[in-house]
Amino acid sequence: MNWFALQSEILLPAFLAGLIVAATHVPLGRHVLKRGIIFLDLAVAQTAGMGLIIAHGFGWEPGGWQVQMIAVTAAITASLLLYLTDKRWAEIQEALIGSLFVLTSSGSILLLAANPHGGEHLKELSDCGCGICIGIAPCRPMGHACGCYDCLHFGTNLITGWLAD
To answer: What SS3 state is found at 126?
Structure first.
């Protein structure tokens, strides 16, 4: 294998994003598995995705701070909602988490249904708004890395603190 042929401008941002995801999701995953509420992360992530679609509806730039803020606010709101429902209806918490996932997933599809380029815009939003490990936008990898780490670290601490109660 020729190590000099590797393209570091592609691999390094993806590697850094992978390290950040691993560093922030392992503590949350341990608490989720300890509690037995397995689909919590899917519901919160789907809510953040719906936040991206709502931000697109406002006409904001996919890489802008407003889009990041809407996604983070949606995720934290979903976490707070699930925390409050856990205090009141603990015996049906898993069903409430599943219902939140289905409602936000359906809502996202309905929001995109009116837009003929909805699928393309969703890909653009997810690539630039949140970043994905393979296709993270190379224009600002460290900005994405720092922003994602701060938001996920705050959210992970917030959620794991609630799950510890």
So the answer is: helix
